[in-house]
Amino acid sequence: MTFKKLLLGTSALLGAGLLATASPASAQQGPQVTPGGKLNVSVTGFARFLWVVGDVKERFGGQQSSSDFRNDTEVHIVARGKDESTGISYGATVEFEADANRNDNTDETWVIVQGTFGEFRFGDEDGASDLMKLGAFTLAAGTGGIDGTVDLPRLVAGVNTGDATKIIYFTPRIAGFQAGVSYTPNAGSSGDNLAVTNVDNAKDVIEAGLNYVGDFGGVGIKAGVIGHVGDSTDGDNNEDFWKLYGGGVVSFAGFSVGGGFGKQDVFGNDITWFNAGAAATLGPATLSVTGGRVLDADDNIETKGVVVSATVGILPGVTLDGDLLFFDEAGVGGNFDDGVLGVVRIGVSF
Question: What pTM, to 2 d.p., does this model score?
Answer without folding.
Answer: 0.83
